[in-house]
Amino acid sequence: MRSIFESISSLIVNKPKIVFGVLFLVFITSVIGMSMLTMQTGNDTYLDKNTPKGIAFSHYEDTFSQDTLVILIESNDPLSPDVIKYLDQISRPLQNLQYISSVSSIADLVKQANDGEIPRSSGEIKKLKESIPSEVLERYIPSNLLTMMMIKLDVGMTEQKQKSVMNNVRSFLDSTSPPPGVTVTLTGNPVFQQEMGDELSKSMGTLIMGAMVLMVIVLGLLFAYVSHRFIPVLIVAIGLILTFGIMGLFGVSINTAVIAAFPVLIGLGIDYAIQFHARLEEEARKGSLADAVRMTITRTGPAVMFAMLATTMGFIAMFISPVPMIRSFGLVAIIGVVVCYFTSLIGIPLIAVLIKYKPKGKIGEEKPTKADMVLSKTAVAIAKNPVPILMIAVLFAFIGLQVDSTIPISTSERTFVPSDMPAKISMDKVSRTIGSTTPVPVLIAGDNVLSPDVLKWIESYQQNELKLYMEITGSTSIVDYIKIYNNGTIPSTQFEIEEVITKIPEGIRNEFVNGRTETVIEFSTKRLEMPQQDELKTQMNNDLILLTPPPGIKASITGSFDLFTTLISDIAESKEQMTLLGFVLIVAFLALIYRKIHAVTPIVPIVCIVGWNAVAMLILNIDYTPMTACLGSMTIGVAAEYTILIMERYLEERETAASTIDAIRESVRKIGSAIMVSGFATFFGFSALMLSNFNMISNFGLTTVIAVLFSLIGAVAIMPAVLSVLDELIHDVHDIEDRVLHHPHKE
């Protein structure tokens, strides 16, 4: 391995212009790749569409839950003839727009019940209203101030086509003349997802710019002892562009989690750059620039690489998560840290050669800073009395690991986005009136779901759920529409059922029936928190077992309601599995690389830090989300770097030091300050996440900042205590061996 680093250093020293030319071509390719980046929002970030559950969900979405635009009409009387007439007037032009499959509103039901005509008076409309079941009526008129028109889009539309449809609908609505006092708003999930994507793009720019500005400030304040102190910022910027380029070229989309990964990469990337730059400055004070470049690459290159690989262990653990968002975070983080490492390994020595780098300090000068001395004294004090420190640290970690399972899990997408996002405001307006805008769909499949027996079972199940659960506010199925068009009863023969079905408007019929093989019941509910939704789903699934469907018929809860409640259990299980796998990977990595008993010492502070994180989340009232769920495994990776650096320097000093205390004193004195500088740089890089107006990202930022602080404490406080205790145990074991071998027991 050393020969590889030697070859790199020789190439940079002897042929810097060629290396620069190659890197410039790579940079240009990355810029092209950046133009190919895509934004990903919606359910694909939460559910793997290739799993059986994902396939079933996609089938339901494509068949019954086509993307729907909602035209929200606000007026003093949503059943006035003027409002009904306006809805009828805009219905046909909207239906004729490209990529729109159906348009439905209360106007369709009123016309159907009045021989195809719009009544001229409010009295006639109110009379017709009585013949429409309340569950169906509430679907279109949720309150005395609102009515809604549903616009179903074609199946399998691309994001670009959806955007085109929304623009066309907005343009058409702007050209219409609503009745006086009527407000028209376009909303719905496609609008929500589009605005969310736009906000994510803005947030990404804000976070990256914020992180870079903070890096400049940190390096300006803490890295003044080197020449050209801002080179690491340039290196990290190049590393980010290369990362973007790789993502674009290989089709890795940007989502909420990926955006959160970039400040993390900036924090870790600046850490690597600082390590290389500091070593270059140190070596440049000893001799020629060529020798400094060689020493920096051959000595610091492998050490930082081991630390980088240790960090990736935590990110690799994220791949076992069933949540695509978490896996994408891990993938981008791995790509980013590897790219940032190689950018620092090659970029900093290359820049040094090209600009003929001169160190800031005097040749031969090696003077510890005040920070080094303070950290060294603190570490020695802890090492001399390690047991109380370890007992307190382990106690808080134990408490954290115990309370971790009690921290709530939030999976509601609307709590993740900015509170002032227009689409969120309009959808919240509806949900405050009618309760949750996410229905509870029950998919019913079989050879003939329109047989009299199945229709009667559907009616029975609907009535049972409405009667049992106060959380359910209404239900709608094809049965309700069949009864509307058959004088309030279910036909007794198959022929009569087929005849009634043809009378139901096609747009409404397609929402509830797919031929004869599938139909769906949609239950509406109050606004419920995710744990309440999860409990309701469990109870309704139990009812499907008790109220068995007719032979040959299967029924199951599906849709977004099932998706986001299932996400709770997915996060609860995967966050523990990711953390455990992270520990296993880091232990295996340390054992493979070092093959010494000291390789286990970093595990103690890492376990403590993971436990402390849980205590901090509980105190700060931060919920687990798809982002914070990966905090444990990410912390393992970040904390491993600092603890490994301390351990490596300790092992080096222990070979010549007279005692354990002397080795700890010298190791912390020589590396403590560098760790604190890189640690604070990482801290401020992560803190940029708190600038996001997405709650999920800002809370993740707060927890990662705390994790970095804990990691620094673990490195400079807990590691000396662990090393002291371990060396004492090793010394005691050696004493016992000596007594047994040299002073055998005499009988």
UniProtKB/TrEMBL annotation:
UniProt keyword terms in alphabetical order: Cell membrane, Membrane, Transmembrane, Transmembrane helix
Signal peptide: none
Database matches in InterPro entries: MMPL_dom (IPR004869), Mycobact_MmpL (IPR050545), SSD (IPR000731)
Superkingdom, taxonomy of origin: Archaea
Keyword Hydrolase: no
Pfam families from the UniProt entry: MMPL (PF03176)
Subcellular location: Cell membrane
Chief location of this protein within or outside the cell: membrane
Residue ranges annotated for the SSD domain, each copy included: 233-354, 634-725
Keyword Acetylation: no
Residues spanning the membrane: 20-39, 204-226, 233-252, 258-278, 303-323, 329-357, 378-401, 578-594, 601-620, 626-645, 674-694, 700-726
UniProt GO cellular component terms: plasma membrane
Xref: PANTHER family: MEMBRANE PROTEIN MJ1562-RELATED, MEMBRANE PROTEIN YDFJ
Protein name, UniProt field: Hydrophobe/amphiphile efflux-3 (HAE3) family transporter
